[in-house]
Amino acid sequence: MPVGVVSAITGLGRSSLTFTGVAGHAGTVPMDLRHDALCAAAEFVLAAEQYARGVPGLVATVGQLALAPGASNVIPGAATLSLDLRHQESPARLEGLSALRRRAEEIAAARGLGMAWDDGHGQPAVPMTPALRERLAAAIAAAGHPPTELPSGAGHDAAVMAGVTDAAMLFVRCKGGVSHNPAESVTVEDVAVAIDVVGRFLDGMA
User: Fold this and answer.
1) Per-residue pLDDT tens listing for the chain (206 residues)
2) Is 11-123 in CATH node 3.30.70.360?
3) pTM of the predicted model as reported, rounded to 2 decimal places
4) What are the residue boundaries of the structural domains of the chain, listed by start?
C-alpha cells in the first residue's frame, strides 16, 4: 500500500551491560576453568533475539560490543554491550527490559561472572491522536486506497509535538521497506498519493 497511518511513535530504552570474568591465556586455561565474558555476552545477544521474536511488536538490538583486553590470544575478561529495546506499548517494553535483565543475571551466575547493568536513555511510547488518525484513514479511503495503521519504529518529532498539541503522521511506502538509510527510496506516484491524501485530510479539517 502506498501510504499508511502511524498509530504511535514507538517507545524505546537503551541500556548498557557488562559481563566481568577472568582474562587468561588462550593456550593455558582449560575450557572447564574459564570465565569467558564474551561467551556470556554472546549468549545474552541470542537470548535477547529469542525473547523479542516471541513478543509481537517488540524489537531488540545489540549494536555495540567492546571487549577487554581485546587480544587475539587472551580470553576476554570483560564484555560490554548495548541493548536497544522498542515497542509501541510502554508496558510491553518495560516488561521485556525486566525479563532480559533477569536473563543477563542468570547467564552471569551460571558462568561464574559478574554483571553490571545501566539503564540509559529512554522514552515512552506516544500514541497519535485517535481523531486525527481516523481522519487520515478516511482520507486514504476517499483516495481509493485501503487504510492501514502501523507504528513508527523510529523516533520522530511528532512524539515531541504530541506533548503540546494533537498529532498525526502519514507513512509513505519505501522500496524494500528500507528507511533511515541512504538506500531509502520512494516513487513519484506514491508521493502523489500522499499529497492527495494530505489535501483531503486538510479539506476535512476546514
Assistant:
1) 999 999 999 999 999 999 999 999 999 999 999 999 999 999 999 999 999 999 999 999 999 999 999 999 999 999 999 999 999 999 999 999 999 999 999 999 999 999 999 998 888 999 999 999 999 999 999 999 999 999 998 888 888 999 999 999 999 999 988 888 899 999 999 999 999 999 999 998 88
2) yes
3) 0.87
4) 3-8+126-205, 11-123
Hey, what's the cell of 182?
541512504
